[in-house]
Design goal:
mainly alpha
Length: about 110
Amino acid sequence: MQNRDDDIRRVHRVLDDLRLESLVDVHTHFMPHSVLAKVWNYFDSVDDRLGTAWPIEYRVDEDERTDLLRRYRVGTFTSLLYPHKPGMAEWLNGWAAEFADQTPDCV
């Protein structure tokens, strides 16, 4: 993988060339730590099921992930939750609303 700072500079050049101030990223994942741990565990073991690795690129805490998005000049992003069991949607939506209240660039 190339150096992340080089990648960020490349994205900035593209945005500048297009005269765009920022990006909107609709495929970012922020979720309660207990759910996130299960999701990361799933992807850690996907190689066993699919025969190919699916590594998590940004395996860092929420503050570092939001900082990285901002460094890439992502002005707006989502939490993109998956209520995959009955009864999860209500409390996940509540968590997402609280996260968005505390994170102004998250919709």
